[in-house]
Design a protein that fits this description.
With 239 residues, this protein is of the alpha/beta class. The chain has six helices and twelve strands.
Length: 239
C-alpha cells in the first residue's frame, strides 16, 4: 500500500479521518507506525497529501489530514475488454486501475464462456475492492468507472459509435493484414477493444471495424490479456 486511500465515510471532519478496518492493521503491522508519524494519504476521487497519526491503537487510527496535491492525470484511454476468465479478471481490474485507465467496458464475445458472467468477482463490491487496491499501489485517487455489457451486438451497434465520436478507435487483433503498428505515441484520446483468449471471431472484428475502429498490429506474437494491457499502454502512450 503506497497510498492510504480514504473514503467519505472515513471523514469526521474535512481534515480529520478515523479508520477501523483492515487499513488499520496495515498501519500497525506493515508500517509499524506510531502516534506522530505521517503517512501518504488520499481521498477517493479527491486530493492527496499526508496525514499525521494523532491516535493509534488496536481499535482505531485518528488521522489529521493535509491534502494539497491533485491525483495523477488519467490515461486518455477507454478500454473495451471482452470479459476474461474469473482468475484473470481480478488481475486485469487491478492492472487497469494501476495504469490510470478510467473508463472500462466489460463486454460479451463469442469466445467468452457464459459461466464467466456468474463470477462473484463481478459483484460491485468486489470490483470496487480490486480497483481500490490498484489505486493504492499506483498512488492515485480517481476510481475507474466499470460498465458491464452482456450483449455484444447492441453495444457495438448502438453505443460504440457514440463513444468513438471524440476518440480514435482501435481493435487489438493479431490476424489483420491491413493493421497499423502505430509506432508513434498517440496524441489524442483513444478507445481500444481487446478480445478474449483466442481473440474476437471474424464477425466481431467486422462489426468493430464497421463501428469506426481501426485494426492494431502488435506483431507476430500472441499475448495473454494481462500481458497485452501494459504492452498497449506502453506502445501507444509513452513518449
Amino acid at each position: 500500500m503506497n497510498l492510504l486511500l480514504l473514503e467519505n465515510e472515513d471523514l469526521v471532519q474535512p481534515d480529520l479521518a478515523i479508520i477501523r478496518d483492515q487499513r488499520l492493521q496495515h498501519i500497525l503491522d506493515v508500517h509499524r507506525a506510531s502516534p506522530g508519524d505521517t503517512l501518504k494519504v488520499g481521498v477517493l476521487n479527491g486530493k492527496m497529501g499526508v496525514a499525521e497519526i494523532e491516535i493509534l491503537d488496536r481499535q482505531q487510527a485518528t488521522l489529521r489530514l493535509a491534502l494539497h496535491a491533485p491525483a495523477p492525470d488519467p490515461l486518455p484511454l477507454t478500454l473495451v475488454l471482452a470479459l476474461p476468465r474469473p482468475k484473470m479478471l481480478r488481475r486485469c481490474l487491478r492492472m487497469i486501475s494501476e495504469l490510470g485507465i478510467k473508463q472500462l467496458y466489460l463486454i460479451h464475445s463469442f469466445r467468452v464462456e457464459k459461466s464467466y458472467w456468474h463470477s462473484p468477482l463481478l459483484d460491485e463490491t468486489e470490483i470496487h475492492r480490486t480497483l481500490i487496491a490498484g489505486l493504492e499501489q499506483a498512488k492515485d485517487t480517481l476510481l475507474p468507472q466499470v460498465q458491464i455489457r452482456k450483449r455484444f451486438k447492441p453495444f457495438v451497434e448502438d453505443e460504440l459509435p457514440h463513444l468513438l465520436r471524440d476518440r480514435l478507435g482501435l481493435v487489438a487483433h493479431p490476424y489483420s493484414a491491413t493493421a497499423d503498428d502505430f509506432s508513434q505515441p498517440l496524441v489524442r484520446p483513444a478507445l481500444i477493444c481487446v478480445g478474449p483468449e483466442g481473440g474476437f471471431i471474424p464477425y466481431e472484428v467486422e462489426k468493430l471495424l464497421a463501428a469506426g475502429c481501426l485494426p492494431l498490429d502488435l506483431g507476430e506474437r500472441i499475448y495473454r490479456v494481462e500481458t497485452v494491457l501494459p504492452l498497449l499502454v506502453g506502445r501507444l502512450f509513452s513518449a
